[in-house]
Design brief:
The complex is a heterodimer of chains A (about 575) and B (about 625). With about 575 residues, chain A is an alpha+beta fold. Chain A is built from 17 helices and 20 strands. In chain B, the strands form five sheets. In chain B, strands 1, 2, 3, 4, 5 and 6 form a six-stranded parallel sheet that branches. A six-stranded antiparallel sheet of chain B has the order 12-9-16-7-8-13, with helices on one face. Chain B has a five-stranded parallel sheet with strand order 19-18-17-20-21, sandwiched between helices. Chain B is globular. The chains are: A alpha+beta (about 575), B alpha/beta (about 625). Bound molecules: siroheme, flavin-adenine dinucleotide, flavin mononucleotide (FMN) and iron/sulfur cluster.
Chain lengths: ~575, ~625
Amino acid sequence: MLTPHAAVDRRHDLSQPLEALSPDETLKASSRQLRGTIATGLLDRITGAVPGTGPKLLKFHGVYQQDDRDLRDERRRQKLEPAYMFMIRVRLPGGVCTPAQWLKLDELARAHGRETLRITTRQTIQFHWVLKHHLRATIQGLHDVLLDTIAACGDDTRGVMCSVNPDVSPLHAEIYDWAKRASEHATWKSRAYHEIWYGDERVASSEPEEPFYGRSYMPRKFKIGFVLPPSNDIDIYAQDLGFIAIEEDGRLVGFNVVIGGGMGRTDSAPHTYPRLASPIGYVPVDRVMPVIDAVMSVQRDFGDRADRAHARFKYTIDDKGLDWIVGEIEARLGQSFAPARLFHFTSNADAVGWVHGRDGHDHLTLFIENGRVVNGETAIMDGLRALARVHTGTFRLTPNQNLIVSGVTPEARPMIDAIVREHGLLALNDRSGLRLNAMACVALPTCGLAMAESERYLPSLLTKLEASLARHGLERQPITIRMSGCPNGCSRPYIAEIALTGRALGKYNLYLGGGAHGERLNRMYLENAGEPAILSALDGLFARYAVEHLPGERIGDFAVRAGYVTPVTEGRHFND
Amino acid sequence: MTQAVDLPSAPTTIRPDILTSRQWNDLQALATSLSAAQALWVSGYLFALGGVSRGAVLDEPSPGIASATAAPVRTLTILYGSETGNSAALARTLADRAGALGLPASAIDMAEYMPRRLKDADDVLLITSTHGDGDPPQPAASFFEFLEGPKAPRLSDLRYAVLALGDSSYEHFCEAGKRLDRRLEALGAARLHERIDCDVDFDAPASSWTDAVLATLASSASPTSVAAGRDGRVAVAPAAVVVDRQHPLTATVVGNLVLTGRGSTKETRHVELSFPEGGLTFTPGDALGVVVRNDPQVVDQLIECLALSGDTPVTLAKRTTTLADALTSDYEIATVTPRFIDVWTEVTGADDLRRLTTTEGAAERAALIRTHHVIDLVERYRAPGISAETLLKALRPLTRRLYSIASSLSAVPDEVHLTVSVVRYTLHGRERTGVASGHLADRCATGETLPVYVQANPHFRLPHDDVPILMIGAGTGVAPYRAFLQEREARGAAGRSWLVFGERHFRTDFLYQVEWQDLLKRGVLTRMDVAFSRDAADKVYVQHRLVEQARAVFDWLEDGAHVYVCGDATRMAPDVDEALVTIVECAGGRDRDAAVEYVHTLQQSHRYQRDVY
Ligand code: SRM
Ligand SMILES: Cc1cc2nc3c(=O)[nH]c(=O)nc-3n(C[C@H](O)[C@H](O)[C@H](O)COP(=O)(O)OP(=O)(O)OC[C@H]3O[C@@H](n4cnc5c(N)ncnc54)[C@H](O)[C@@H]3O)c2cc1C
Ligand SMILES: Cc1cc2nc3c(=O)[nH]c(=O)nc-3n(C[C@H](O)[C@H](O)[C@H](O)COP(=O)(O)O)c2cc1C
Ligand code: SF4
């Protein structure tokens, strides 16, 4: 292992014996490359859970053990175990899936997932409500259409994101290809997945199963994304490792690299904070994989493995110093980064509706509120299934939890139009500027970490805010608002113009002043506030913004200029 | 009689006469291995052993005892309720520091602590945070529920102190800690030290609380200040009162909850009754008889339909009362009997009914009985002007219902638990409820009373502690096994145990699921199989699980296991019986006759016992 700078503090990293590290490190190391006792746990009929170390290891397989929190207290009294069930997260780099794959997702959700699918903030699909004895069938069903759930969760590279840019398809195809290859390259390789879920025989081999990850995998999750300016739809500054596409004369020539972004924090733990990724320079296009290896290996070797709340790459960088980290990356890469190239972002939102792409095809972005695909007021699930039955292009899931029917040929357009009309799907897009730019994480009743409602609550809160916006003539004004049910920030709230993170049922912290294209963190304005306080604070902000804003000024910028909050310049000052 | 003895005033190397040389050697070996704190603990332990388990107090304490070590050692318990680990960490620190002061205790999660044990605790230090919106931490929920519930014991001998963790930005600051403090006081416990409510910066206030509490404990542990111990208490022997069918005992409902989860097709309840100390004695396997009353609404309907008055005085065998009261407490007013048909034929002269009283009409009569309640016939065959006496003559006395006892006195003294499947169905467009199960479900809220008695069942008994047991039950048939396992755990029985349970749905109908899981974890239950008949297309019942594991079942039988079958008499019991024969055939290599004989022999030798209904 390279250690060019001997002075660095190594008391909590991979160089230490397991006993000195967090128990999760022992668990990974003794899991026989992520096998553990999952297979036997699946057969245990006495519990709907997977006992022992099962739940932690299952995450690496893209499977989360959860329980219906609405029933938790009731069942405890009834001497019944919690209503265990599983969330399954599909690995879908760049959010692109074929109609055939969509039909399978739809079929599996109807059979095992309470007839709902969830588009996530990292452009993939989650099933919820899957019972233990349906796990194998679901994962094998995905396998039928060449989908898997490997590394969708766990201490490894998570789903790799990629801009959706429907109107610049030629470059999208190339960048999407990088995202896909990055995902293949960086996910773990153990055969555990095939053995447990597909029932493959264990093959003996003298080769190490995980040449990169070893027995200990990463200290914590690691997130990679590719963005194609001027859109910053994927929130590149929230990634552990981000690649910003640089084009010259319509050709992709290389990437600016950013490192160390992340949202997660914990209330009343000031040593945790959201952080925007730092730019570290430019590399030509053929250096993507070596950069991934170098960056990930630095975090693998130096990340904190004693305190999981402090194990993300952002803390490694702030602890060791950005310069030191870049030096270490360059040493491993065997080359220096070139100075970053110029680019600019305009927005991190999706433009809904039809666009005509430069490839001559049409693309329809549908607003799916909070990514929840379900037959509700509009039969979204049925509508999308009908589209998938005839569509010849692809579906793209957006980082804003929306869905694009992409690559509609001129010939197919009338048929697609007819289905969209029949199912009333265009009406989904007829929403206020606030709602179209809103996101909520899943939270209750499935998320085990939720402290407050999010997905189930935001829509009704928005209705109240829309009334207030209407009073001030701001119905069409795009305003980014994001809600998370806890401070982990799965909806990337800390870069929204307005954000709410849950503290307890009905209580939220209110944040203001994030940048509209993901370039600035927001800051807390109200702590532990209930709905009346939130509504009145925001009504006040809307009122002033309506009369005082400068031409083209976004509400996040206004909140900073008007002194509602002081801007956050660096993540570690977020809690100041 | 205990002797007065001289206690050593200092460690000695010379064997005192009172000990044999073997005892002396053992003691020396132990003594040299102990730390100071351990030694102090052991001295207290041995003292308590002398004083309590021999059932007497030293009658002539020598002066040495009183001044040097006579302080009855009070035990210290440290409990914490924590969700994110803060209270847990503080509790561990507290335990370490207490240990260093010679007050050994370990920090116990409220989730792991049987709150009943508080009754026998001396000094308890509690640290809890608040979560949700002023709620106790999730893992401590059951602890709080018990303590704040009607079953919490008086704790007048307990001393305690509470440290509350919270966050003052929440409306209900440190509410859980405050609740504990209030409740313990209300239960008669004495506060050792004022509660401290800590905000998110809890380190400083927590450590000053720790200091103060430990100082108080350390000073009170010194011999002079200790109040008289608890060991002098004499248990009062319960007066010998006979409780039987004729003389039921009034029990109080202290718990009544639905075991089946939301969406279940069934309603099965867990009912807990408490009775005065020693009031009932029973052995696992016994049943409880309950004296119930009819649904007052059904009584009213009947009286109204017959145009009678509920106040009409009626004379019964043992007392005079009103018609309404008699119909409520003394007569079966739902189930139709042949006697009812006879009387009703007389009263109404209805030809339809008369036909049924003949021999040819027997089958039809049986069908009528199965598909009608008294009220249905009374409405159809009007009897204007009928007298109260005539009505009562048509009815049979209300019978008492039995329920297998689902608890063991060794584990839960002074309580008896039942597992009740509530009978509800619709007949002729009207909702009907079983008399007893309906009474238990709808009119037995906590605090209500119920006359009960024990119905012994000597044919359903645990074997010797070392003998393996195979318990098979569907639905409420698991009830006695809960008592069996409680008993075996309390006795520390070494025998293996295997439970095979069946119901409809895993999600909603896995009665006492969490308890079985815990028993498995603790090794009290060795093995468990379940069959849920409506979860998959192919209906799986307990007998299928038995046959699937024929080899293991047969091995257990050959190892001398006792087999129990409890629950449904009509289908399950014969199916299981058949399964046992099949198992002996297949796994035991017997022909059918020999297998039948094998199972028969099991029965004869009381190794195959059934309690089916
Ligand atoms: C589904 C999704 C939210 C959504 O509404 O779409 C989600 C849902 C969950 N996240 Fe997340 N996260 C999701 C994107 C994010 C993002 C956004 C992003 O990556 O762009 C973040 C912030 C970025 C970051 O990582 O810092 C995020 C930060 C977290 C954290 C905090 C991590 C940290 O460093 O502190 C946790 C908790 C943890 O890991 O301990 C978490 C944990 C969870 C879990 C798995 C809860 C758990 O660990 O038990 C949630 C499952 C809830 C459920 O019932 O489905 N999730 N999570 C997103 C799925 C993304 C995907 O497809 O992979
Ligand atoms: C030794 C022993 C142990 C027992 N242990 C238990 C136990 O642990 N748990 C338990 O729940 N029970 C147990 N029972 C059964 C219990 O005693 C009662 O019989 C049962 O609770 C029903 O009583 P009830 O008064 O509620 O219903 P009743 O008023 O007696 O009504 C039951 C009657 O209603 C009628 N009925 C039921 N369903 C329908 C329908 N769909 N359509 C038409 N008529 C219908 C039937 O005629 C049935 O006999 C045990 C019985 C015995 C003998
Ligand atoms: C979701 C949540 C809800 C909370 N609700 C309250 C509350 O209502 N009142 C309060 O005083 N503290 C509340 N707190 C603060 C905790 O009690 C405090 O963080 C404490 O230190 C946690 O201790 P523990 O780690 O032992 O659980 C809450 C904390 C969380 C995470
Ligand atoms: S932000 Fe918190 S509540 Fe929402 S999904 Fe993520 S972990 Fe769950």
